């Protein structure tokens, strides 16, 4: 349909109160096949999503594709940073949505909006996203917290999920739509999350703090020392 | 229309039982003109499709554009791996769908869904796909098992076929939608097919088997040898 | 609308009998600003379009943006290869469609379908294409026979014109939809046109002819000479 | 919806008389995180927009995200080149549209069409654009006068805003739609603006003037000197 | 020294009769860290070297770095294609030349010239190469049959080994210096080896054979069929 | 001279016992100017060097260029991971070697070999390296733990320092020449250091441990569960 | 030796009177394997060399590697543009210098300096160049009029031939060292040759002539017309 | 020779007191042919050199290649920023060193060291540099203030001039070797010059000044406002 599906006149942005996050198949073996972005970037973006879900108290559901085989284990940071996440074991189904336990877990959250990321994008993110749209969910697919085997495969998948009514989104946009404002007590923790997504932000903070420190401490510049 | 055409409320994923595969003009000469991806990647992806079609018993139709001229012969792997494929000779028509024998062969499969790949993407994949959509088929165009003369031409063609109602897809997604689950007897053969599409998977398997072998055989690490 | 505009159920491919070609602002100065593809590729693709228009006898309209200034003169190949092309001088209007003489020339062709290419893509191709769609024409925009100042600008323009109902297309696809079949007397001239669009095709022909010549002349291989 | 939203049959181009420009969060710190284009290109494109707004007398509204922190101050060129711009301070809201003062300022212009650019694209440009479309504005999002943390994030955002009904546009197209014709007294100032967007244009002008000067002054070529 | 070391006036090309080949640490785990070229290219180039060594009967020595750990097993093609290769187990030494058994094996060949490839280039190829030069060997380092973690690391290593007197070489050059002439009985096997190094060569052969077959069999072109 | 300077017949590899490490101007502001590699890669490589220096007990000297100004503070990881490092403040000199305190600190180590990294490569690494060679030191310049403003600048600097007799090296090679063997008690810490330099190594370890765990714990594969 | 070999104090630039040109194995099949530059660029550069040789009357020797097989025929432009070139058939030798007829032809020119280009760079250019240096010739290797299977192979070959004493050069430098001055009667033909090597030069000429024509003809700008 | 030529034991860095700068053929037409770096980067680097020459009072000599023709005029910034520069008109010679007036101007400076930049690198920079080395000058060639028609041509030229004894250098290194220390009265003007070479430096300064201003003015953060 190529319009954001199932919004029915609602603005196509994330309604935090109505949303759950699905993190699918982010496994050490599958990460070795990722070629549409640096794997370190992918890992950092997934970490940022897990952090943001915890900061907002949003439900998180995780699952893995045969983690006992070459696909490897889930990266440990997800459950470390989102300890409230619920893990659902599958029985070999490639599309997580084909696993009834997984769908039940999603339904149990009572939410109508889903943030979905999965590796590989073309399969583990796309199938559940299209399935969820088909069952009436509003779905935000986080393309750069997914990761697949070629840039072309990523581009094709982007076109496919948009055509299917999924809303495409990047990690920074997810964070910002969840955070909403810097006028909040946990602002520093959000700033930390952004340093995962765009690492220059960490340099900015380091330089900023030093510059202010020099100003307030009246530190002399080395080039002005006798 | 920019929505998946002819699905009429069905979910826009591949229904294996209703699908035939069209592999068009994958010829040694035309492969020399491919520049949107490494030609070896294209060849491997086409091989993976042929394997997957055979594993599912799906009908396959092949054809070539004047293989007696500079375009060259079909790559032999297609018929080697999908020996049940039906070859249709054309009479100079560039759009395979303009050849009545080809359309008849498609109709004879009795399927309503088509997986289409062709070199060059812009022409040999796009024209039959758009024609088939126009005649009521549900069409999945495998962009990275096609191949064309520039990345820009690939991107333009992606936009065009999506606009026409074709569902864009990559090779790995085709494989996964056909396979559905790892809980099947031929799982190993599917794993082999994936090593064509993302070669690091082969390394994963090699490392995995060795790691388990070391563990079960109690092999000592070289670095621990006296 | 994001669907091919004004087709009203017709298949969104080029109907040769109903089509005119507009080649806009392909000028030596503007070519220096092109950065989304090699300028030589752009020039070759424009040449191929002009050739193809002549082979089919299709009306061609050209125009230039202040060719007396830094934008420079039209590249001479267009009128050399499509001597039947009609040149329309503008009076400073950036959007060729804002010039009444240009619109009159288009209307005078009596065609309802337009193939449009123009440098720079973002402006000289996009504006007339969107304008023509708005006035009821079926428009095919040849992205890689246009050319603009960055890859990003090209991608943005592609998205914009598709959203507006224009059909995006590449040069090779235009050629093939016009040619339709190799079973025609001027097949060799079409082959020549393709060597502009994908230069390896020229190598294929050279190798092919030599291989056949060796076979029929029973030429001995150098490596087999005594 | 994937069609240009809120045009209701109007052609989806910029109606100068009905348009205001929003330049959001172009700050020295945030510029350090931009990776989808060279930062210098982004800065030059923003400069070109500010110049063009002034040449047309179009209302401009600016704002910044916590400019007292690591995000840094607005780049000074915006207000230098568009001294009539109105600056709206926010109170920590990430989406400028969440700030009532900002929305009031937009409404006060009385315009129904908005040109929006913002850093980072994924957040500071996308959220206000989607919000404005939702409230009935016609929105043109200037992708290459925005800037975000990865090319992938830019591509995802482009797809998202197009899906939401925003019209994507590049800086050169904005300039041309505002300028309309070279037959105007301030033509030279527009030419200057283009040299920001495609710097080779400056070389074209330099070469052009010298070539004419040589011709009219009958200057002898160095290679012809005795 | 930056000159080919230890040649003493001999031409710095490979003297087949005086040469042994060292293939070091081409392991499935280490291959996952390779980023200066596609891993598939590296694997194919190593295969080509093994084939060529067998065709010339040249001694081959292989070794691996703790293959019982995450580095993984040697890729099996090396010993499959060069069954005469001698494997030397190390005891944790990173520089194979630090392992006395390895050096003894090299000395036992009686050769004064070494062809060396190893993963990762920066370490497993560079250290033994520099060590061997230091002990008086003439060393050819096959950069594109090695593979390391970044293009920059490869470039730095190239500069380092050249500075140390190693002769840098690519896989195709090794093959050609070993083969010397197409006027030999095993010419076809060499052609096969080249298809590993530049895959388009396989297409050339396929097209060539078909073109000659069409000529000699008087096969009619499809486009000429009634 | 283009040969490794000052080795006088010694093999041009790192002699751990004779070596000190100089880490120069790795500052948060200067890191924003780095464009020859991702800044995160640079930061990780510097971290790896600091770790390796500590593991070997090698002397480390650090310095910064006017850290009270826009260049910003040293990244904190260097002194955190190499707490024994000696910091030398300069007085505005760009070439650290122009600062007598810095040279004195180097001399005080009593070492004849130096490992040098510095941001920006072209200046902060190159000048001290060339100066040190001129005074008789054997110098290893770690190109990918430095970082400069363009790839071209990095390439030019590589050529320049090689010409001056500096040995170019990458971070992984430094680690390996310092570590020498996996047969040591702190092997795990070296493995950790390598995960900084090539992050896939971390995935390899994760997958390896899981694979062995599955084998020894006889864990059933999800795809084999009933 | 890494110095220009055999110059013995002469400046390492081309002495036109003492130089012959060798164009080796520029064949249609081998061109399909070229991946270090666009094949069209390679072809244009070879054309420029042939033209320049003719303009200076310099001896040219050509040869091909088994042109009766998949390597294909020599591109016809070489002999078309340098009709005085002498073709030497080989008998299967890969290194042209291994063919006595070829060496005899070189010696017959009586020149001591050679300009060498050959496809593939790594083999057909490198071997004869190194051989010729070994026999006392001064050799200029034209890297971008050769062409090989990867950028890495090109870089490795550059390092190798420089190490062997060959002078590396690009096509434009060859042209300029042969031309020496614009103060010559055939200046226009040299300008034409440069348009092969850097195609924007053709645009410059077109714009230049038009600008002067407008000035001298007092042509009014379209934007100034009533 | 591949060592820095003519230094005779002097350290191969720039001795300001002994140095003149040659800026050759930086013309608007030739700039259109530059493809090894963005033309804007080249222009900025040339500007930085001119500024630095003026700050140090170093002699500057400029020249142009037939500026009355398509090569176009010198960019005006050179003489604007280095008004003391001496312009030497040539008489068609391509190698500026072939023009006696040019050599005389160089000799008249009385300097033994030359900083050379020229467009195109392969010709206008390389020839005079090699010529000057041959006549005993110490030459520093500024690769990224030159500019040529391809990255490959730049790389080949780098190798060639290094082989000839020229010292390769980048623009930032030239600036730093001329400036020597930040402890000087004109430090701010040098900082301005660096913002030409690495534009993020300008952002650093803007952010730094604002951060200090906020600290000293006790400005409240927007996110902390009520």
Automatic annotation (TrEMBL), chains A, B, C, D, E, F, G, H:
Domain Isochorismatase-like: 19-172
Signal sequence range: none
Key words, A-Z: Hydrolase
GO molecular function ontology, one term from the record: hydrolase activity
Name recorded for this polypeptide: Amidohydrolase
Superkingdom of source: Bacteria
Species for this entry: Dyella jiangningensis
Pfam families: Isochorismatase (PF00857)
